[in-house]
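Progress against Task 2.4 (sequence-to-structure conversion) is shown through the following example record, which the project officer requested during the mid-term review.
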Amino acid sequence: MLVMLSAFNVSAATSIKTVTDLRVLKAQSEEVKLPILLLFSAEDCDYCEAIRQNYLIPMKVSGEYVSRILFRQVYIENFSYIRDNSGKLIGGDQLALKYGVEVTPTILFIDAQGKELAERIIGLSGADYFDYILDTQISSIDTQVPEVVPEVVVPGVISGAVSGAISGAGSRH
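Structure tokens generated for the chain above:
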């Protein structure tokens, strides 16, 4: 049984989860406080498979991105169904239309609410430095996340003034 569990963990680590419910995706993103790298893919798209196998899965398996981004994918074929934020069943193609995705592969970088956080990547050009492009986009999101400064409460002092003074003195830019 231990062997089966180990095989399952390896299998889970070597794949990209397919989105089936946007409400679940939102909850997952909010729970771990991470943005989402969302690959719009098609079943017969060789470039999509190349991106998954040569870039996304190795990035995921490396462990370097586990605290930076969630990796997910959506198939845009009309047989691929997803629950939207209201629970309504929609096609993957409808979600692609909502985001203006016209070709596969397209990679979006979104927050839990579905807002794009960085420039999307369309297609697979520059294969020699595609991992650099991905990392640059993820890093640009990292710099957008504000540093949380704990609020210090000092009796007799307005706490906002203290936390503002602390964040001004210790912020990293």
